[in-house]
Amino acid sequence: MTRTRLTAEERHEQLVAAAVTAFARGGYAGTTTDQVARLAGVSQPYVIRLFGTKQALFLAAAEHATGRVEQRFRRAAAEQADLESLGIAYDDLLAERDLLTMLLHAFAAGADPALGPTVRACFGRIYRTVRELTGADEDEARGFLASGMLLTVLGVLQIIGPDAVAREPWMTELIGVHNEKKDWLGPAPE
Amino acid sequence: MTRTRLTAEERHEQLVAAAVTAFARGGYAGTTTDQVARLAGVSQPYVIRLFGTKQALFLAAAEHATGRVEQRFRRAAAEQADLESLGIAYDDLLAERDLLTMLLHAFAAGADPALGPTVRACFGRIYRTVRELTGADEDEARGFLASGMLLTVLGVLQIIGPDAVAREPWMTELIGVHNEKKDWLGPAPE
DNA sequence: CACCGTAGTTATCAACTGATAACCTGTCAA
DNA sequence: TTGACAGGTTATCAGTTGATAACTACGGTG
């Protein structure tokens, strides 16, 4: 039962994916490199060897999460190149709570001078992608990002999404009845 | 030079305020109770005694930050009870980056089952406050919160605000030229 | 003035965690 | 066969850090 040997590149990618999941809970400081390592089935020192520092691993995870969002948007735009299409695509992303939570943790951690530049670049990439794919003007793109941020927070807080908690009155109000059929809302209350 | 003795309640409040500042950088796991203690000029074990656990301190800080936002909104609504007035008030809050960063960290940490309920309650309080103060309907309030979340992230990432970093082209675009005179944008580029 | 409750401290610790160093091992070319 | 490189491990550690325990001191009050 020898563990499958992967190329450094393959292991790298696998670890970044594991890092997104791990950092989603716990955030930057609250996640150990050992947790990421176990999730990928390798030893903790090997993670450090591949990425140098925990910080580099976190930034790689943030960029990976950003890339996933971008990728999903491009796929949506290939079918229909407008904001509505990207909005529907984002509904899919809401189902992957790890991704959104990782992003939100990255944004919060962006206050740290060491992480700020990279995190800002991630945010900028998303903005540019939205504009380039849809041709939306500044105001439209800003509105899209604003809605996206709200949905992201609501998703992270499990107010919307597949694994949403029991819905309280104010949550139903905030979500809005006209959205009740959208699948990103999670199971509707009986 | 005997340190000023405060009542437990006074010290409590002072520590919560210090916690907001401390947790703003570092987040939940990345901030030590000792950092909070030093910020308030007391010993670390005393912080634990007053709050029981680090987690309780964090939640108290999150609720305090929420309360500050609420308070600011109420003051604005006392003069003019509509969304525009609250929006202007929020511009003021953007200058207090610690507050926003604390909130964003709290939202991100809300994915943790132990913190989720309290964080959701904080978010709910803000939503309810906005609606009650302005009489805005669901859609208007949702739009307001969405804009608020975007501004919060932009503030935390120092893309807007008094201590904003050097502005890159996409940032100027995203912020929008029509906002150039607003003081929450920080110093305009020459 | 002696007492006592409240505000605070110092001493201490067990557990954790990122990082380093040294070692192991499969595979493939010559 | 052999060597050598890439992929990976075990051993180890120094620095933290939340929390507990035991002790100290101020200030009002009978």
UniProtKB/TrEMBL annotation, chains A, B:
PROSITE patterns: HTH_TETR_2 (PS50977). The keyword DNA-binding applies. One of its GO terms (molecular function) is DNA-binding transcription factor activity. Residues 32-51 bind DNA. Residues 9-69 form the HTH tetR-type domain. The keyword Lipid metabolism does not apply. Pfam families: TetR_N. Keywords: DNA-binding. PANTHER family: HTH-TYPE TRANSCRIPTIONAL DUAL REGULATOR CECR, HTH-TYPE TRANSCRIPTIONAL REGULATOR RUTR. This is TetR family transcriptional regulator.
